[in-house]
Amino acid sequence: MLDGMLLGLETAFTFQNLFFAALGCFIGTIIGMLPGLGPMSVVAIMIPVSLQIGDPSTTLILLAGVYYGAIFGGSTSSILINAPGVAGTVSSSFDGYPMSQNGQAGKALTIAAISSFSGGTIGVVLLMFFAPALASFAILFWSAEYFALMLLGLSAVSAFAGKGKVLKAVMMTLLGLMLATVGESSLFHAPRFTLGIMDLQSGINFVTLAMGLFAVPEAFFLAIDKIRSKKSSSKKSQEISNLRINLKEAKAIAPVIGRQSIQGFLIGVMPGTGATIASFLGYAVERNLASPEEREEFGKGSIKGLAAPETANNAASTGSFVPLLTLGIPGSGTTAVLLGAFIALNLQPGPQLMQDRPEVFWSIIMSMYFGNIVLLVLNLPLVPYIARLLSIPRSFLIPFVLFFAMAGAYIGQNNATELLLLLGFGVLAIIFRFADYPLPPLLIGFVLGQMFEDNLGRAIRNANGIEFIWERPMTLTLILTAAVFILIPILRDWQENKSSK
Amino acid sequence: MLDLNRAVALALLGFSSGYGYLAYFYHLLPFEKFLAVRPNTMPIGLAIAGIICSLVILIQPQVPKVEVEGDGTVNRPDAEYLQNPQNYNWGQGIGLLLLAVVYVLSLRGVGFLFSTSAFLVLGGILLGERRYTLLIPISITASVLVWYLVDQVLTIYLRPWPGWVYY
Questions:
Q1: Of A4, A405, A49, A450, which Cα lies nearest the Cα of A220?
Q2: Residue in A164, A226, A457 closest to B37 by CB
């Protein structure tokens, strides 16, 4: 492992990689701050551009920087204008916004920066130990286990979809899997389900789908949303001063940071969860742990209530790299987008990654230390200036968001027809969002679909039947766990429906 | 009775059935008939699962909406706004999408620089921007800058001028 760390340091700490890590953090912070643009869209927009760099380590370092930069930047808009740019920072606004209304905006931003830094850094330390351990275990896996693992990943995504939406999430995952079968596949000999359309021959492009599903609806919702547009345009960016926190406050938030780093990380590791759930849970747990008089403060500007979600969401976004790097299973929508980048770079994330391309594996991890420092340096002194971005009028912001989404897909495909497909997906995604169907499962199903079918096919061919399901204990365990993940929330919903009648 | 939720479920049912039809009658190559996993094995399974799933969504009783979502895009403010459609600037949203379609269609004929500048300017005007002296220079600068980055730096060909101008 020491070898790997040194190799990672060597790769990550070249001038080029440090530069791109810092650039990624900077871009992520700025775009993540803009209301409505989540890390998923930001990373998706950056993929086509970053693929042009050529060096896989650098590309992934940049994208990882964009990811945690976006989580970080989202907290700024939550605190200052109560318009979370990212779902994962919604709970930061519970206490952050009251603080800034009390004239403590500077202090709130400092606490957010320190908590994020600590959560991120502790998360990376844990990642450094967790990922190789899991990878050396997962190297024993065959295609049968991979098939089961993907089933587990897909079902976990659905299971964490939120109350009453499990079936919808399952349906979206199935839709994603269906879309993944369009075009050519590695296992078979002719393209499928193209309906004779030439542009579908090579399948649906991942970036096109991701942009259509996330960037277009976000632009649309920003445009039609009267309330939020008023919120961000009418409020002048207020003076942010007094960034200091005192020793007493530091002592108060230190245990919160310690607990939430570990909890957030562990939640992030579980497939299907992510920064959003980690931050909500972190907030709830700290609220319950606080003394009664401190509990009164929660929701009115408690520093603990701000530190908890901020630590947890950064630790969780680091933790979500564990299943991605070691198993090749994305745990959240954003890591699904990152998985798309891995595939575009011709890298197969999974246990082999650590064996075959240790420099990529370790340099991503090592660059995260640096990235977290960059975020801290970037945010403490510069935040008052960066926050001016929040006053960009929406009449400029929205057309540019849409334009960048389309430019991103065009760069990847060089094809204007692709953009029509993108807009088509966008319209579908808008309808799905109105009907309250979750979209990340669709994308995860799409990304995993090809690998899912390949592994299933290989497992069945190797075993000449489906006996492998019960003959391999690991496979059976994983499949049963997946079944439990799906069934329990469905039964729970059903029970609640029955009792509410 | 048929709210948006169920209408979408119905559409998904239709999609799954159509997909299942295509999968079931998929034209197998002669040797593919002997494969353990045929090209349409998983699609047929998916279609069946999709049909069952969408049917259940269609007939199950409505569940009241909840606030905390999974890791995803539908964040809390949206969920609140979704309740009352009067809160929306429908015209602006739909107009913007239509504008984007026109933009995409015009890319090839009119060239990147003109169509992008026009898209950004018209998009701004649509969203209520009236400071033309600000809007027009920014849009033109942005489209030239992006064209320069994509075409010259990344060397991905983008036709800058209309088709009839020799470049």
A1: A405
A2: A457
